[in-house]
Amino acid sequence: MESIPRRSLLNYIGVAILIFGMATAEFIYWRSLQQPPAPDDIDSPYNSRDYEQTMEKTVGIFGLIMAEWSHALASLEEPRPLAITIGVVSLLAAGGCFAAARMPRE
User: Fold this and answer.
1) pLDDT tens digits, 23-50
2) Residue 49, class by beta-carbon neighbours within 10 Å (0-12 exposed, 13-18 middle, 19+ buried)?
């Protein structure tokens, strides 16, 4: 026999994920409110047409797409979108644990 039934274990894991994820997201979001807003990257050299043309010539379309993806991933370092992402992922993971706990065991 198991010491903790599968259903209870999944529920405990779901609650732990939910509490830890929401606390982390809330802390990150709260800290972002304390910081001054970041300057816009309108004047960034990565947004110029010359940069895009040079990248397309040197590494092709695929390289240009990969460079744009890497800059988009770098924007996840901003605290507010990161906090929202952590909150949503923890909600989905906890919901998955709760749903798995409700499924009958075969």
Assistant:
1) 999 998 888 777 665 555 566 666 677 8
2) exposed
Same domain, 65 and 87: no
Count of CA atoms in the C-beta half-sphere (13 A) of 55: 16
Tell me, yes or no, whether 13 and 43 share the same domain: no
Number of domains in the chain: 2
Residues 43 and 67 in one domain: yes
What is the Cα–Cα distance from 84 to 70, expressed in whole angstroms?
20
How does the average pLDDT of the chain come out, rounded?
A: 80
- In percent, the amount of the chain with pLDDT more than 70 equals 75
Structural domain containing residue 95: 1-35+79-106
User: What pTM does this model have?
Assistant: 0.58
